[in-house]
Amino acid sequence: MTRYALTPPNWPPGFHLRLGVVADLHAGEPHMGTDRVRRVVAAANALRPDVMLFLGDLNASHRFLSRRFWPGETAALLADLRAPLGTYAILGNHDWWEDEAAQQANRGPTEAHGALERNGIPVLENTGRRLVKDGRPFWLLGLGDQWAWWGGSVRRLHRGGVDDLPATLAVADDDAPAILMAHEPDIFPQVPSRIAVTLAGHTHGGQGRLFGWAPFTASKFGNRYAYGHVVEGDRHLIVSGGLGCSVAPVRFGAPPEIVLVELGQPGAG
Ligand SMILES: [Fe+2]
Known about the structure:
This protein is α/β, with parallel strands linked by helices. It contains six helices and 13 strands. Fe (ii) ion binds at residues 24, 57, 92-94, 183, 202.
C-alpha cells in the first residue's frame, strides 16, 4: 500500500476525496492468478476509497506464462472492486496490443473495453464523468491510450495512440476540480494546471530499480516520470508502480503496490 496525501492548488477548501488506484495488474498464471487478483481486490476495497480507479493493462502476455487470461476473466474479478462512487477504468497499451482484431482494423473498441463495461466498470476513453461526493462535484477524466498501436518490434514499441487530450479536457466544462487518468505518464508536460492531479501507471517503476533509479523505463522521459509523486510548477503527477510484470515475471526494487491518493484535508469536510 502506498499512500499520497496532497492538496493541489485551487482544490476546494474542506473537500476530502479518497481515490483507490489499481494499475498494471497483468493477470495470468502462475504469477498473478485468480487467487492473487482476488487478494488485490480485497486489499484495495479495505482502503475504503470514495472511488476506485483501474489504470489499464488487465493481462500479461510475456512468454513465462503457464496460462493467459482473457479480458473477460480479469474484468469479472475486478467487478468485485467496491467504492461508493463506483469503479472507473482506462485502457493500457497491453489491452490494445493483445487485441489482434483491433490492431488489424486500426480501431477499437477493444475486447478489454467491452469486458470491463459488461462487468459494471465504465471505461473513460477521451471522456469523463462528473461525480459528486457530499454535494461537491468533481470531474474524473480518462485519456485514450498513448501507445495503443503496436509498433511491431522492441525497437519500435508503438506507432502512436488513440489519446485526445483536448477532447478529454473539454468534457470538464465547469469549475469543478478535475482528475485525469492516463495510462502512460508521458502526456504530463501537456497537461494544463486545470487538472488537479494526473494519475498514471505503465512504467512499473521501471520494474527494476537500483538505489531508487531505474536503468530501463517505458517512458521517453527516462526516470523523470518513472515512479511516484512528481511536482512540476503547480502541476501534480502520481505514477503508480502497479502490480504485475511485462516482458518477464521479475521485479526488484519496485515492489507491487496499490495506491491510495487522498486529496484535500481529512476531517475538514
Ligand atoms: Fe502499460
